[in-house]
Design a protein that fits this description.
By secondary structure, this protein is α+β, with helices and mostly antiparallel strands. It is built from five helices and twelve strands. The chain is globular and about 60 Å long.
């Protein structure tokens, strides 16, 4: 059990951080109309909040690039992410290896089909961060939970896209400041980047984003196939 868990511990650490990034900023940036010079940051935050309040569900394709500092290696993975308010999240990795993270109001599952193993824990333990709990429950307030600023000294990248940095106010070792890039024309999230406490860095890129399509809660349920060993997450 320990061998399998250690092999995929980085996936769990990354995913618990990315819950915030996905729920907040893949959703929130959809409604931000930015053009020309950067608008006042309070106006950006207000528009983000309005979009979040209106979003019931979403889906998106993603590419995840993770650099493991200790071995100087970058891993690239692809898949699709789905969210339904409240507290339902599905990460479906398809390349280079299939794996699945399923979170619903009751359970969290990490399923590794090639290893024929699944890990599980109670959702309350997964949601131990108050910020995660609020935003996954549809109750999050950006101004109460983050310091949001333009990146300094340059608020725009070379293509004129907007660069924002967000610092969680909650003191939690798994929640570090992170940076997002917002497309100047479409207002979609192009890139999310952050580092964890071990110095590992992650970049997420999103495409094919859809919102409020009426996702079924059934897709956020998981039953391990026959022959799969089931363990509690350490």
């Amino acid at each position: 059990m320990t061998k399998f868990f250690n092999k995929n511990k980085q996936l769990i650490i990354i995913t618990l951080n990315v819950l915030i990034f996905i729920v907040l900023f893949t959703i929130l940036a959809l409604g931000v109309a930015l053009a020309g010079a950067p608008v006042p940051i309070d106006e950006v935050v207000a528009r983000l909040q309005q979009t979040y309040d209106k979003t019931r569900d979403f889906s998106a394709s993603f590419i995840q690039e993770t650099t493991i500092q200790s071995i100087k290696k970058t891993e690239i993975e692809e898949g699709t992410v789905f969210f339904k308010n409240p507290k339902n999240l599905l990460w479906n990795y398809s390349k280079p290896k299939a794996k699945k993270m399923v979170i619903n109001p009751r359970k969290t599952w990490l399923y590794l089909p090639q290893d024929k193993v699944a890990y599980t824990q109670e959702a309350d333990y997964t949601f131990k961060s108050s910020i995660l709990m609020k935003f996954l429950s549809g109750l999050g307030k950006l101004k109460n939970d983050f310091i949001i600023k333009y990146v300094e000294p340059e608020a725009l990248d070379k293509q004129g896209n907007y660069l924002l940095i967000l610092t969680p106010l909650e003191k939690n070792p798994s929640l570090n400041p992170f940076q997002i890039t917002v497309d100047k024309s479409t207002s979609l999230i192009l890139r999310v980047s952050f580092e964890d406490t071990m110095g590992n860095s992650t970049v997420l890129k999103f495409s094919n984003i859809s919102t409020n399509t009426g996702l079924s809660e059934k897709m956020f349920q998981f039953k391990p196939p026959d022959g799969v060993s089931i363990f509690d997450m350490p």
